[in-house]
Amino acid sequence: MATRRISSHISRSLPLLSRGVKQFYRGRGIHRYSTSPALEDPIKPPVSLQYDKLLINGQFVNSASGKTFPTLDPRTGEVIANVAEGDAEDINRAVSAARKAFDEGPWPKMTAYERQKIMLRFADLVEKYIDEIAALETWDNGKPYEQSAQIEVPMFVRIFRYYAGWTDKIHGLTIPADGPHHVQTLHEPIGVAGQIIPWNFPLLMYAWKVAPALACGNTVVLKTAEQTPLSALLVSKLLHEAGLPEGVMNVVSGFGPTAGVALCSHMDVDKLAFTGSTDTGKMVLELAAKSNLKPVTLELGGKSPFIVCKDADVDKAVELAHFALFFNQGQCCCAGSRTYVHENVYDEFIEKAKARALKRSVGDPFKAGMEQGPQIDEKQFEKILKYIRSGTESGATLETGGDRFGTKGYYIQPTVFSDVKDDMLIAQDEIFGPVQTVLKFKDLDEVIRRANNSRYGLAAGVFTQNLDTANTLMRALRAGTVWINCYDTFDAAIPFGGYKMSGIGREKGEYSLKNYLQVKAVVTPLKNPAWL
Amino acid sequence: MSSESNGNGVESSYVKIPQIKFTKLFINGEFVESLSGKTFETIDPRTGEVIAKISEGDKEDIDLAVKAARQAFDHGPWPRLPGSERRKIMLKFADLIDENVEEIAALDTIDGGKLYSFGKIVEIPSVAENLRYYAGAADKIHGATLKMSRELQAYTLCEPIGVVGHIIPWNFPSQMFVMKVGPALAAGCTMVVKPAEQTPLSALYYAHLAKLAGLPDGVLNVVTGYGRTAGAAISSHMDIDKVSFTGSTEVGRLVMQAAALSNLKPVSLELGGKSPFIVFDDVDVDQIASLALQATFFNKGEICVAGSRVFVQEGIYDKFLIKLVEKAKAWVVGDPFDPNVHQGPQVDKNQYERILKFIEIGKKEGATLLTGGKLSNRKGYYIEPTIFTDVSDDMTIAKEEIFGPVMSVLKFKSVEEVIERANATKYGLAAGIMTNDLNIANRVSRSIRAGVIWINCYIAFDKDLPYGGYKMSGFGRDMGMESLNMYLQVKSVATPIYNSPWL
């Protein structure tokens, strides 16, 4: 039930592809919606691991140092694979391949139509291998398999098809200058794009970054998160099968302080795009400033308000607020992590939010019907538990949850705090876990002020049927996305990004093309023109 | 002399002529007879012989097709699908065209006398490309949020305009089909297409492929028939929301009139032309003479952008003429299935006779016939590439659209002069500027009143290049993202806002 409900929020913008999942579960005869609290032995993922090396210049290669690092199964903490560990030297190799592929072609010199066809072929291939790709994503990340297979991989495909359609529609302008001049702008690919993506949505973040970069004719060096290196290697292999020339897409697995830093400070990388924490984002920007002043887009943390107004249908508000926070184990930069509830409906809301959290199915993400799997790793797991302790210590009321779930792996109980005050740590910091904090408010002006009183400005949710309230909040909230009566409604065409310390720039939609294009103004005098 | 490559043979020895599979009207997802049961003959212009009998749609068939399209628009899924879903079906449609390139190219060749090799290698693949372009546009139809000067929140929605009537000509049966249908489908419209009576075959084939691709019934209807009956019924239909027409200026006027007298439906017209092809002294004569030939004789001169007034600057005039004649003589007229042939037969007897009449008028009015002008001695509607010199601006052949392989060469002295003369026409579809002088190129491109300017190239079409006319060459733009506007309504939505921190 719950999974269906989650899907239904998203299905407004997503066709559900459940074919592969159903086959998988039917084959194994696992009952859906088991409510057993005890964790059984982990289910064997229905995929075999094929790629664990760096992808440079179209070849899978060992790192220059020969070093590897383990990537872990968050259900157990056990090693899935030892993956080649890229460092500065590997970044150099990857950048030089990307540089060559950009400077000498054929990729940027190809017709846009040809680039489009390769991207469309790639989307078809990903669709074909959707079950394996989704399984690998879940294995490495711990997110429910149904979410990977029905929502995330289809969205990945959608994003690539969307940007495939942009390739031959990248328009500059002709410009009426003040005087007898012919002026036109050319929108040219920016060059070698360095991209650093996080572990919470490894594939979607890949699509957000790689698809527009390729559509514009750039070449790419991608550093994946050390927690989740696997799916990017698999899909990049398919990208080459679709006909991508070598050197255009390079993937270096490794750590931030080594590979990430090398990419950010590289003198031959023309643009950086980073998604991750605000602290790391600062370093990325600093390294870009200290090296070659490459432009940077940042998509960082958030502490997004979800505002339940007094006219709200409480049942629906509870469900949506629950989804807004707990989706993806709470590991969303736009998680609705400050739930502001109007005083008229507050008590009822708390009671129902607690009941809903108690009902949340937590367990092996490969098991059907699971809404919540384990957190990504031990570090995140410990950090979240620390925040939970801090909530209790600072006087918030722990309504439910508050501890680990089971005894193995990084599972955490869905946790709800009430009586949260704006100055508590749990109301200010990004927890990035399944911890809902509920705050009470009286009037609109107050909640606007409080909602905006954050260093973040990534997203906001508004729950009301009142048009004036919706319009007022929509304009007043300082955030890059405002969802009204919906949440986490993503689409390839909807831009996403942050105000304030949630980042710089917008990804997705037509807006993202700008990140990967240079604008060249071309000016020449006109002699005796008929008009200007 | 133009060589002839294939005797008078009826059956082509080069390509197996496909069996004609679709000869009926396509309405609401089914091939059906016309209500009257009448048919008309479509003729092979290579021989004048009948290829097939095609259902002849009339007013009542148009009514049925509009009803299906209306139903599909008002209640069907098509306009309500997300753009990405429309795209999926359109991409599938494009793939199916790619899979059937040879058969479709052969249909256009037997029906329209068009070059088979060109169809197979360029024209039909470009139909699939175009469809992919608009497939990619289906999820990029953006409205805007607006800047109000008081406390209002406002935005625009770009909504499909509704049921569209497309009336398309016979010179590019395939490209015209996709140029109209592609953007209309992307926008979410439903439609009734009336192909030209001379070339109904490929449109029916496309209808079949669209169904295979999963296009819902009623979204695309094809009614074959004549302009004065089926075409008139589309133009004056009270339940069609928009008409898009490509054809002659005379008929365009009738379409617009019918729209005015019925429900004031918006009309876009892509009509005739008498486009100047201007050659300046500084060009490579050999290269540009070849281009001039292509500009005028491409597709037997049956192209609305034909560069049919070739203005040559006096410094190279004589040299240029010698080259033109030399190249015209090497221009091969013959069976369009023959890969060595440059030019097939004119589309039908009417056109054939009309062109010959123009050639006679040219001679009578005192122009010098430099080459061509004779009939080919073979069966069918073949005409040799024809070049007139000593043409003055007031001669009929310099003013009227001939729509055949007839070039008029005119001499000019200065940039000022050629701009004035090039613009002295009721048409304004295209123009060619041949020069390497940047200032001349820029100046002339801004000075010519025409919808497309080609500098050192000609007939350089592209999916992303909008195309249409100034003056009596029509209005509206086909191709590119521009053409979506012809199939969209703009709805402005405004509502008061209170306590907004900014406006």
TrEMBL record, chain A:
Limits of the Aldehyde dehydrogenase domain: 60-522
Record-level GO BP terms: carboxylic acid metabolic process
GO cellular component, one term: mitochondrion
SUPFAM superfamilies: ALDH-like
Key words, A-Z: NAD, Oxidoreductase
Active-site residues, Swiss-Prot/TrEMBL: E299
Pfam families given in the database record: Aldedh
Single GO molecular function: aldehyde dehydrogenase (NAD+) activity
Family indicated by similarity: Belongs to the aldehyde dehydrogenase family.
Protein name listed in UniProt: Aldehyde dehydrogenase domain-containing protein
Source organism of this protein record: Penstemon smallii
From TrEMBL, chain B:
Catalytic activity entry: octanal + NADP(+) + H2O = octanoate + NADPH + 2 H(+)
GO molecular function: aldehyde dehydrogenase [NAD(P)+] activity
Entry keyword annotation includes NAD: yes
Catalytic residues (UniProt): E270
InterPro entries (UniProt xref): Ald_DH/histidinol_DH (IPR016161), Ald_DH_C (IPR016163), Ald_DH_CS_CYS (IPR016160), Ald_DH_CS_GLU (IPR029510), Ald_DH_N (IPR016162), Aldehyde_DH_dom (IPR015590)
Record key words, sorted: NAD, Oxidoreductase
Domain of life: Eukaryota
Aldehyde dehydrogenase domain span: 31-493
Cross-referenced PANTHER family: ALDEHYDE DEHYDROGENASE-RELATED (PTHR11699)
Complex and partners: Homotetramer.
Family: Belongs to the aldehyde dehydrogenase family.
Protein name, as recorded: Aldehyde dehydrogenase 1
